[in-house]
Request: fold
Amino acid sequence: MNRRAYPYRRAAAGSVAMAEWSLKSEEGDAVPLPAFIPDWDFQRDLSLETVVGVDLDVVRASAGLPDEAELALSVIWNSTGSGLRRMADRVPLQRGGTRSAQLSFTVAGRDSGGLLSIETQLVLAKALDNLDPTGPRRAGSVLWRHEARVRLQGDASQFPMAVVDFKKAGYPENAPWYLDIGPNLEAATMGAVVLLVNSGTPTVLNALRRADKASYAERLIQSAMRQDVVRLMVERAVTDEELTDDSRFEPDTLGHTLLGLVRTFLPGASVTSLRMTRRTDPALFSAKIQHAVGLFSKET
Reply:
């Protein structure tokens, strides 16, 4: 197991006690933060909170800090889906004794996705001239840390979704969704692909938001969308002459994602053969995608 090595003394074990992160549910109740939220979507904000207790006297003594050293609790979140990293909350801790601090923050759905990491830190708030050569001196020196992670998306949802009024945006107003795929194969998938869902189709919106709690009819909608998204992605792959079976792309780029999708759903077919099938028999090409994705098969 890899461990971080710090060039200074840190808080003694047991001098900082932290409760589990709690997630405020859509009903307003606080529940323990799970490792995976299968029904999350990009329209859902996440509100989290916890309580941290700190014995400031023990922390300063064990870390080699003077009594006047100012400390702070901070929370930093990072999302692999959006690539964003943000300071979420910060609470200063002064004087001595045992202090209890509540930390809370909200991550906007549009800023998140993928794997959300939450790092809680006890840090030296201000730089000081520490007489102890083994003690920290620089502002931001980490004396204690805790990391929690929650996965917000399963395999069926690896790029952003946005709810849009199709009539105002200029899309066919009765279409339930539109998959926007960028032209640059070297671009990051998270920035190159977005699934637009029509705000004028509440039945579709409810099917997406309910996820694993969906009714039978809503599961059929989910299946139809999943099949259509895969078909459009595979079509994007086979219609791009620059993309071949021998193409090499950096991980998490659009080209890498497209090739991975082809190999996952159509492992026995080459990009060249799929390109020919789509040119000569589009109906057969579409049927192959339906079969590969299992259109409606899981719902029946």
